[in-house]
Amino acid sequence: MNLEEQLLKMRRDWDERAKENARYYVATGNENWSDEEFFASGQLTFEEEILTDLENICQGKDPKQMRVLEIGCGAGRVTRALAQYFGEVYAVDVSGEMVAQANRALETFPHAKAFQGNGMDLSVLPDDKPYDFAFSGIVFQHIPSREVIENYVREVSRLLRPGALFKFQVQGDPSVTTSPGDTWIGVPFTDQQAVEMAERCGFDPRYRHGAGDQYFWLWYFKK
Ligand SMILES: C[S@@+](CC[C@H](N)C(=O)[O-])C[C@H]1O[C@@H](n2cnc3c(N)ncnc32)[C@H](O)[C@@H]1O
Question: Which residues fall within 8 angstroms of residue 171, CB to CB, at 6 or more apart?
Fold first, then answer.
């Protein structure tokens, strides 16, 4: 399977999942999320991953003056919480169905918008001024291609201002079995691979948490 076929498969599979039950595939804890519960779960992620880490994320900047981006926004679960806090929010997802749902969740936030991307770069996002923070959670754990993930990392490096943080999660469990056509199980990273990827893409991989685990979080600071 070549890269083009793989990207097409990602889009098709995630569009199908979104049509069947987007919220379940976004956060598999519940098959029947109410609006309230679904966005409360996004708010919880926001509190756990963002509010506990404001020093690294804001670096003294007023959040309302910050431009942030999110990769793999799904149905806007976390994006909505980001939009309540930051001045400008741009999100991307490979699935048009997910993006449509995310934009419905963002209707009352004119400074936040989701875009459908090609599954491996951020060319759909505005690049007229630099971004102050980038975030991605439970997305790369579904991407079976190391090349695609590294391309996103390089793209974030292109868009962030020097010193800014890209906080994201990858699959760290080495025992998972991946295959090129499986768009549910993402390729695992060792700590060493995470460090080398950062260096190749212009980042300082300053903190890492959860190596060896499904939730391997990385703090990459743009050099
Ligand atoms: C489990 S959901 C998580 C959504 C969101 N991050 C959240 O926490 O609510 C994974 C999302 O990643 C998106 N995705 C999968 N592969 C992608 C890719 N190559 N590029 C961008 N988004 C992708 C899917 O369409 C889906 O919306």
Answer: 140, 141, 185, 186, 187, 188, 189, 214, 216
pLDDT per residue over 17-29, tens digit each?
Answer: 999 999 999 988 7
Q: How many domains does the chain have?
A: 1
Q: Which domain holds residue 197?
A: 3-222
Q: Is the Cβ atom of 23 under 6 angstroms away from ligand 1?
A: no
Ligand 1 pocket: which of 5, 93, 145, 154 to mutate (most atoms within 8 A of CB): 93
Q: Is the pLDDT of residue 109 over 90?
A: yes
The closest residue, in CA terms, to atom 1 on ligand 1 is 26
In this structure, what CATH number is given to the domain that contains residue 189?
3.40.50.150
- Cβ(164) to ligand 1 under 6 A? no
